[in-house]
Each structure stands twice: as C-alpha cells, then as structure tokens.
Known about the structure:
The chain is α+β, with helices and mostly antiparallel strands. The protein has helices at residues 10-14, 18-27, 42-48, 58-66, 80-88, 101-105, 120-130, and strands spanning 2-8, 31-38, 70-77, 114-116. The chain has a single domain (2-135), classed as Alpha-Beta Plaits (2-Layer Sandwich). The protein contains seven helices and four strands; from the N terminus they run βααβααβααβα. Strands 2-3-1-4 form a four-stranded antiparallel β-sheet. The longest helix is centred in the last third of the chain and has 11 residues, at 120-130. It is globular, with a radius of gyration of 14 Å.
Amino acid sequence: MERTLSIIKPDGVERNLIGQIVSKFEENGLNIAAMKKVRLSKHQAEAFYAVHKERPFFGELVDFMTRSPVVVMCLKGEGAVAKNREIMGATNPEEAADGTIRKLFAKSIGENTVHGSDALETAKEEVAFFFAESEIY
Ligand code: ATP
Ligand code: MG
C-alpha cells in the first residue's frame, strides 16, 4: 500500500472542480486518506516547489499556487504514486491523454489543475509537509 500527495491547485478550486477531481481518484481505486483546504503562504509554496527554484517559471508558479486556496490530499492505494500520475496526465495539458484530469480541466502548462508526487521518496516528504501521521487514515 503506497501513499502519495495530491493537490488540487487554485485553478481547480476556483472553478468548483473539487468533487469531480476527487471522484476521478476514487473511481480509479485510490482512497482519500487525508484531505484539507489550505491557503499556501509564499514561504510554503517556495519550500514545497524548492526543486524548481532556478527555473524561469518559479516566480509565476509561486504566485499561482498562493493566489487562492488549494485542496491537499493524501491518496492511498496499490501503486498510488504512479496511479495518481496516470490519472493526472502529462504536465502540459495539450500532451495529456484523453480522460485524464489535466486533459479534461487544465487550461495551460502553468495552471494545470493538480499536483502529484513524482516518486515514492518525494511522496513521503510531501505527505509529511502537509499532514501529521495522526491525520492520515
Ligand atoms: P507537479 O509537480 O505540479 O505535479 P509535474 O510534476 O507534472 O507537476 P513539474 O516539472 O514538477 O511538473 O513542474 C511543476 C509545476 O510547475 C507544473 O505542474 C506547472 O504548474 C509548473 N510548470 C512546469 N513547467 C512550466 C512551464 N514551462 N511554464 C510555466 N509553468 C510550468
Ligand atoms: Mg513535479
């Protein structure tokens, strides 16, 4: 049983897509092990995406992620890390497969509706970034 972190980004929450996105995870056999709505501070967004701090889009990414609330979830299930990435689709929605969240809902490579951990090790760190062990079921 794996755990991974999912974030419904500001563009998804703003457009009232929380339920449809959560349904995608549940329909594909992932469980919502923890969930909360939070407004990221600039400091939190910079720390969360620190791996991208040298990239040209970093400032834009931090501004986007902090402009309104997000929904953070710990997803649980067999092969949850890879399964979540599959359900999300490619980073660029124009390249995302049919039926994926980004194909269905994302407007651009920047505002791409969901985040998902990219490996088991980063998933552990990212889940712990938002949730105490006692909040995960
Ligand atoms: P995420 O980490 O959010 O799940 P990802 O792993 O598919 O997305 P990354 O390469 O980690 O993609 O990029 C992190 C985020 O930075 C992207 O989801 C997107 O919001 C933003 N981003 C990536 N590339 C660009 C770009 N060329 N222009 C603008 N924003 C970008
Ligand atoms: Mg990533």
